[in-house]
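Chain A, query sequence.
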Amino acid sequence: MSIKVLIIDDSAVVRETMTQILSSDPEIEVMGTASDPVFAIKKIQAERPDVITLDVEMPRMDGLSFLKKINSLAHPIPVVICSSKVEAGSDNAFKALEYGAAELILKPKMGTKVFLQESQIRICDAVKSAYCSKNKIRKLISSKLPLSDVQPKLTADAILDKASPHMALETTEKIIAVGASTGGTEALATFLQMMPIDSPGMVIVQHMPEHFTKSFAERLNRLCQVTVKEAEDNDTVVRGRVLIAPGNKHTLIKRSGARYYVEVKDGPLVSRHRPSVDVLFRSASRYAGKNCVGVIMTGMGDDGAKGMKEMHDTGAWTIAQDEASCIVYGMPCEAVKAGGVDESVPLKNIAEAVLKATGLRK
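Chain A, predicted structure.
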């Protein structure tokens, strides 16, 4: 069984080149091409692809509008954006991630054909990665796709030791630790806009590529009463401030006396992610314990499930986004199954639940 791909691009040269590239991989089958999303819809109705490659600028319907439409379906199709309009930090790149793009490939405005040919391995890997992210390892195995490139799934042990369930901590100010992935950019915006200016200090891991987290934090900062910034090593966790873990760096909560701060560091992938929610949550359980509130939100996979159980076991109050309001009920579901969740609430109620848990609401 091979991965069926639909290529959508208004350039005939790009469609031909992408077809040659993807067809060169024995695990990938190009089931068709389309010059714009309107033509693509007809093809999808006739035969559903496993993955779509998509340009942004196209006639009749732009790629981002089509991406949003595809990911609003009950069973979305993984999309790899391949465009010259998704520079790191750009509005298009951010919207593509927000709308659920599995991968982003920036192609140059000039010399596109040569670039695509030189990027053959990367493009094929992006398609396989997109397929696996939605269909999980069981389908990877059943379809006999190669597993040689899949890295071992490390736990938070690779970064720091587990806290004792009976670790005693002096009472200090409450803080909040949050983890999210697929669908998290919109969910976090909804949640943070409901938080008051005097909210407890917060640290967030949102799975997002390097260079995108800074613009994400800046956008949230413009929307919210609280101050939002990309975390830097040794930043203090204080009231009214939200720290977003930078892409490709683990972010840990640490404590010195009554002061909480973050450590931003390199390290191996944990739960196949960097930054990892499990790493953040373990550090919260170790250094904050019952003085922390943990929140796990929409996302694919199980990153954060073990860490939330550790937070729960050291006395933290733990909250999961409920299934009905999740784009992908993966991470919260695994946390619930692990026995680490005190309450599951809809997205619109998470802020109120956090404020009650921290004593700011009755």
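DSSP finds twelve helices and 14 strands in the chain. The CA atoms of residues 154 and 270 lie 5 Å apart.
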